[in-house]
Amino acid sequence: TPIEQLSFTQAQQEIKDLSDELIKWGREYYEDDNPSVEDYVYDANYARLVALEKAYPTLVMPDSPTQRVAAGNAADSGSRGLAKVVHPVPMLSLGDVFSIQELMDWDAVTTKNASSQQHYNLELKIDGLAISLKYENGRLIQASTRGDGSIGEDVTANVRTIKEIPETLSEPLTIEVRGEIYMGKASFARLNQERDEAGEAVFANPRNAAAGSLRQLDPKITAARQLSSFIYYTAQNDVIGTDTQSGVLARFRELGFPVNADNRVITKMADVKTYIDEFTAKRDQLPFGIDGVVVKVNDLNMENELGNTVKIPRWAIAYKFPPEEALTVVRDITWTV
Ligand code: NAD
Description:
Elements: H1 8-31, H2 39-55, E1 84-86, E2 96-97, H3 100-113, E3 120-126, E4 129-136, E5 139-145, E6 151-153, H4 156-159, E7 175-183, H5 185-197, H6 206-214, H7 219-224, E8 227-234, H8 237-240, H9 245-255, E9 264-266, H10 272-282, E10 290-297, H11 300-306, E11 316-320, H12 323-335
Parallel strand pairs: 2-11
Antiparallel strand pairs: 1-6, 3-9, 3-10, 4-5, 4-7, 7-8, 10-11
Helix pairs in contact: 1-2
Bound molecules: nicotinamide-adenine-dinucleotide (NAD).
The site of nicotinamide-adenine-dinucleotide has 23 residues, from helix 1, helix 2 and strand 3.
């Protein structure tokens, strides 16, 4: 039913039903690493909830999936037996859009709210799960998942099995960095083939396989799963001494972190289309899964100026690829090897 034709009571009921459903799907996805619906189904229902809440702002509840990072995630329940880690700087989600026009609209708002003209750093949206890494005097001391944004799970022992993540940095910095843990397509195909042959349930996609493999009590299992990583963020830009997001990535490379090399700086939003077209075409050939492109304000001073909502930064946005593509890629991965 079109939103404008709903009564207040009908809208209230639909908001409750959608919230309950999204939280249930979130539990399956974030807790069990075993979703029962495709991402585009989740996204479509989420978009409907956003639209309903926009039309009825008084019905926005603090525990709505639109107001929480990873709604349905039981970060503090200790369901897996992993220790809890508090994130003093919350680990946020990303706002998402599904068209170039929406990116242009987002650019207009961002440019209006910032005090200078925006340049953007474009990055691939890696289809994995977020990780926080803490280094003290250049040594890795703790790794944790995003959880509900405020409380994550301690996966230090597991992360130490991932070869790409440095135990020691090239400089003795004390810093927390963030990025993505993912499972490459070849490792995913191999894992699912092995599970299939052993009569075990296969993972729905590389993202869930990566999450399931990282959130293990026994690091030996994680070690056997061949996880990879790309690091792309720190809240402590002063520690690494740069004032652009593209500069952050370059410094991360110097420090020894795995950094994806496909980022690109653009000076006007219209140029985003070339990048999106390029990676829509290259997507199948990449050795890792991507589900979109992340557009980030390149000037880190503007990042501070624009700030965050309770759930998402205002200085970045994710453009998500259309669902048909996602389905094709998942099928290709599942049936290769
Ligand atoms: P998200 O995964 O869409 O976006 C935020 C995340 O993107 C960040 O936390 C970060 O980990 C990641 N990311 C990857 N590359 C990045 C880069 N270069 N820069 C910055 N971040 C990068 O958001 P979310 O809130 O975790 O999850 C929402 C999405 O998860 C939904 O849109 C849906 O597709 C999916 N989901 C699916 C189900 C399901 O049942 N299928 C359930 C819940 C969520």
